[in-house]
Amino acid sequence: MLKFHEALPLSLYIHLPWCVKKCPYCDFNSHAASGEPLPEAEYVAALVRDLEFALAQIWGRRITSIFIGGGTPSLFSGAAINELLAALHARLNFNPAIEITLEANPGTTDSEHFHGYYAAGVNRLSIGVQSFNDDHLRALGRIHDAAAARRAIDAASAAGFDNINLDLMFGLPGQTTESAIRDLEIAIECAPQHISWYQLTIEPNTAFYSRPPALPDEDRVCEMQEYGQVLLAQHGYEHYEVSAYATTGRRCRHNLNYWEFGDYLGIGAGAHSKLTDAGSHCVRRHARHRMPLSYLQLAGTDAAVVSGQTLSKADLVLEFMLNALRLVHGFAPDLFTQRCGIPLEEISVPLGEAQARQLLERDINKIIPTARGRRYLNDLIACFMQDQETAV
Fold it and tell me: Could you give the count of Cα atoms lying within 13 Å of 295 in the half-sphere of its Cβ?
């Protein structure tokens, strides 16, 4: 039986599924807008119904962060985001220092949008730049150019935002190490508080998977990553997760809750939830209907929830490690027991195997991937996949 001795941190994820067009590398639940006006009011009302339907599962718990993702949330007006956040605030217990992030595409924003989001209570922006090179942006199918990205960053700062993340990719089609580092240099010149710098990967069910572009080889990609990490460190960006870099005090609290295996409620088309029920000694996952129009009709009813699963001990061990071992500085041993409800001794065998293979180090204070473990993260995770049922 799982045993939880304290309430887990709880975040809220909100999915806004529409975008201008689907990028060829994107495997998220996003849907190109048809050209008709977005059903903003109807979708906000559906989100509120969805939340009210789920309230019993989280009653009395405090929300530590909110993340509005997509799709392209910045297709929604400041007025719609204001209405949504006001409705959430009326129904939920917000942490006084709550972090509220909204994803923005430089091709769908302007000064009015940013002022509206700031006035609504959004206090962190994640701007999907991906590259400051127009050739690379075209190869990625982005709807903005480098100049639009710079304008968006400037407009966000002018609107009052002082907690901005820039999403940036490397390993792009035709990219050299020099152009990858130049992208990073320009991003640093923009002085964001956070940079998510991650390698382009080709995922199933994407246009790139069907028609793969020519990508830099593994040695070149490793060179980009190594040079980039040195550059980011030199400019005061702490590397705290595989692809996340932050200035002092500006780690993304919402994503940290995922990586530290906290709880989260997801509302919106295709949104996922992971919630701990300490009274029933279990952890459950749920997913909402993916298609926006069906979600609009079904939100707030049982029919909107299309899948549900109670996680086994083996599931919990693997999922915890999939997340926590992405953290550069590892995790405290007590965190595993707090978040999984399982004594650490029950995974001593896979921990010992990973340590023997020099993939992680551990002491009374930390369990941390080694440099080798970070490089071969899949091998490290695999230690917790073998004979899981007997290991726990």
Answer: 29
The token pair at 390 is 């007997």
In a domain, 252, yes or no: yes
pLDDT tens-place string over residues 93-103: 999 999 999 99
Beta pairing class for 282-288 and 272-277: antiparallel
Tell which of 257, 273, 303 closes a domain. Answer: 257
What is the C-alpha separation between 99 and 266, in angstroms, rounded? Answer: 16
Round to whole Å and give the CA distance between 377 and 375: 6
Q: Say if CB 177 and CB 224 are below 8 A apart.
A: yes
CATH number at residue 345: 1.10.10.920
Q: What is the DSSP string of 6-25?
A: SPPPEEEEEEE-EESS--TT
Q: Which of 166, 138, 140, 141 is nearest to 152 (CA)?
A: 166
- The 10 Å CB-count burial string (b at 16+, else e) for 174-184 is ebebebbbebb
Question: Domain residues for 22?
Answer: 10-257
- 2 located within any domain: no
Digit-coded pLDDT (tens) for 33-89: 877 789 999 999 999 999 999 999 999 999 999 999 999 999 999 999 999 999 999
Report in angstroms the alpha-carbon separations of 67 from 3, 34, 229. 29, 25, 26
Task: Report the alpha-carbon distance of residue 220 to residue 217 in Å, rounded.
Answer: 5
Pair of tokens at residue 148: 């639009």
How, if at all, do strands 360-362 and 367-369 pair?
antiparallel
* Element holding 195 (H helix, E strand): strand 194-199
| Helical H segments across the chain, by residue range | 40-58, 78-91, 111-120, 134-139, 146-158, 177-189, 207-210, 218-234, 253-259, 292-298, 313-324, 333-340, 348-356, 371-375, 377-382, 388-391
Would you say 205 and 26 are in contact if contact means Cβ atoms under 8 Å apart?
Answer: no
Domain count, the chain: 2
In a domain, 357, yes or no: yes
8 Å CB contact between 221 and 171: yes
The answer to whether position 228 is within a domain reads yes
Residue 155 in contact with residue 114, Cβ under 8 Å? Answer: yes
Do 154 and 68 share a domain, yes or no? yes
Task: Using a cut of 0.70, tell me whether the model's pTM lies above it.
Answer: yes
